[in-house]
Design goal:
- Two copies of one chain form a homodimer.
- Chain A has eleven helices and no strands.
- The radius of gyration of chain A is 18 Å and the shape is elongated.
């Protein structure tokens, strides 16, 4: 493995959640909204869950719409810090693709899943805020697709459209937030490793697919 | 191809949308809710879009919560009619898996995408209604997973957990509703065919993967 390639261990540190007080509040709010629905979750209920007075909550955000923007921004921050930035440092496209899928899968098995699901709720944001989130998502998508284009140039990609392939990989990874439960029988490592194998098998051609085994045997 | 196996052509008939007046209203409501968010979409706005008076809309549903249940029920009806039921008639597991992915992908490139996305909003449903939708989703998920188990018995599956694999396939297919636009450069057939190839590559082992090409050459 290239020494610049991120490892699961790098993510498994407490560092993932060394966010500030505001971040802590956004994570609690995201879990509650995910459970009850955005409509049904009042600012009072969020304040209660975060052990704040209502005035205390309004110190952080002026409205539910602004809260949604803060939550989605935090989700994008975590994605960029733990997945996108480390992956940009990986030169070899197959290593990079595997790093993206592995790290992103692992991130989504944490309680950050609720944050990630809310990045879907762009319709509920103010237009200016929506533009910011859409642009950040677009930039992350482009990294996946350009990595697939590199694999295509090397003759390692299936004969499929790279836009379809990039969204398929993103979809299978993002879906984790909707089904994975840490209380269930599957460990985070198992889910991330299996999804990485599934994802590479999904897009690599016969020749490329032969390399999965090698990757699977890494320490 | 087995004669019981569904084809893309079967779905491409106007039959997909031969729903009644109520179904027509639910589809319009779903598109509006998808675009604006559930919270921001009033019953008045839905009535306007459906060219009904507010009283006319209340003839069909008593509340926004009931409307959401009707929308998600319609999404499940379409899935079961056009994907699950035809697939249950396909005996060979690889043919069945390909039929599920192909037909479901094709279904989601239609405007039914907005309906499908709202099946995620179970948190907004009344408890009894939520139970019904969750049970229907579970039954459809079980068909995918049991098909993967059959492929495992035949030695055609990658060494991955079948729950992880089934959710991965479901995620990549469900994601279509979030990104595909009929106004974009990709045809519905192209998307469905590419996703079917990606999905089989994702889960089949080396031996099994060799069969994709054969399937791809079908008429």
């Amino acid at each position: 493995m290239s020494s610049t390639s991120p490892t699961l261990e790098a993510l498994a540190t407490p560092d993932l959640f060394e966010d500030d007080r505001a971040g802590h509040i956004y994570r609690i709010a995201a879990k509650l909204i995910h459970k009850q629905g955005f409509d049904a979750t009042s600012m009072s209920a969020i304040a209660d869950a975060a052990e704040l007075t209502k005035a205390g909550l309004y110190y952080y955000v002026k409205s539910k719409k602004e809260l949604l923007f803060k939550i989605t921004s935090l989700a994008m921050d975590l994605l960029e810090k733990h997945v996108v930035e480390p992956a940009r440092g990986v030169k070899e496209p197959l290593d990079r693709l595997r790093a993206i899928v592995l790290q992103h899968s692992y991130l989504l098995t944490h309680e950050t899943g609720a944050l990630a699901i809310l990045t879907d709720e762009v319709a509920g944001l103010e237009p200016g805020d929506r533009k910011i989130i859409v642009a950040r998502k677009r930039s992350d998508f482009d990294l996946v697709r350009s990595t697939l284009e590199e694999l295509r140039s090397d003759g390692r990609l299936r004969a499929v459209d790279t836009t379809v392939a990039a969204f398929s990989l993103l979809g299978m990874v993002m879906w984790i937030a909707r089904w994975y439960s840490a209380e269930g029988p599957l460990s985070r490592d198992r889910v991330a490793e299996d999804i990485a194998e599934i994802a590479l098998g999904a897009v690599l051609s016969g020749t490329g697919a032969g390399q999965i085994q090698t990757l699977g045997n890494r320490p």
